[in-house]
Structure formats: structure tokens, C-alpha cells
Write a structure and sequence with these properties.
59% of the residues lie in helices and 0% in strands. Helix 1 packs across helix 4. The longest helix has 23 residues.
Amino acid sequence: MINKIPFIGWFLSGVAAIGLAVPFWICWTLWGIGETYFYWLPVQYKTIPFWDCVGIFVVVAILKGTLIPNLFTVRNEQKVGNG
């Protein structure tokens, strides 16, 4: 949702993507989780470059905000007084 706001939202969305990509990239690439547990993947997916990882997080955030419908909504209506 935040990436729909021009410039400021795009910047904050990019910072959030970088912040999420850092621990994921460290766990996946440096600590070898990709090679250990996902050995059946092709080699290029076992060691993802950092900026490609950031790009994946940006694309997932955009797709999540545009393609996935809201399945549940919650309403909270309060009536005050004698009505």
C-alpha cells in the first residue's frame, strides 16, 4: 500500500525492501540455507546476488498490493446516543 504514494512511498518501500532483503540474503546465501535445504533448485537460485534479492522483495510487495484481492474485511460501526 505504501508504494502507491509517489516518491515518499516509493522511497519508504525501497528502504523496507532493503531492510527485509539483508537478513534473508545473509541466511540464504552466506549461511548456505539455499544450498543445504533447497539442493533441488538450479545453481543460480542457490546463491542469489543481493540486489536481485532486493528486487524480488520490491516485486513481491507490488504484486501483493495489486493482484491479491482482499478476502476478508472487518467493519466496526459504533452508534452513540439514542438511535
